[in-house]
Specification:
The protein is mainly beta. The protein is built from no helices and eleven strands. The strands form two sheets. Strands 2, 4, 5, 6, 9, 10 and 11 form a seven-stranded mixed sheet that branches. A four-stranded antiparallel sheet has the order 1-3-8-7, with no helix packed on it. It is globular and about 40 Å long. 30% of the residues are buried.
Length: 115
Amino acid sequence: QVQLVESGGRKVQAGGSIKLSCVASGFTFGNYEMTWVRQAPGKGPEWVAEINPNGDSTDYRDFVKGRFTISRDNAKNTMFLQMNSLKPDDTALYYCAGGPRPIQRGQGTQVTVSS
């Protein structure tokens, strides 16, 4: 079955950097668009960034443009999110989503940014 496992979340100070990973299994990873989504405490989920199947096209929400970079390594069934210049507003549970319908999501990894 489809599995998505995120890692890399931790607590950092504002201005710091974190790189998240999402390892996929149970489907042909390189055939699917993948997305990073986050959910802050008390708020609904919001997509952050997405990447096409072969990794040559990406899209970002305005609030992370220029700070976050999404990438993927299809040979390793892994997607990444490099997050720089982190702000307290970036504090959230980050999870990856994608694969065949119904689209699955992982359990998430917590990112906490202190001021």
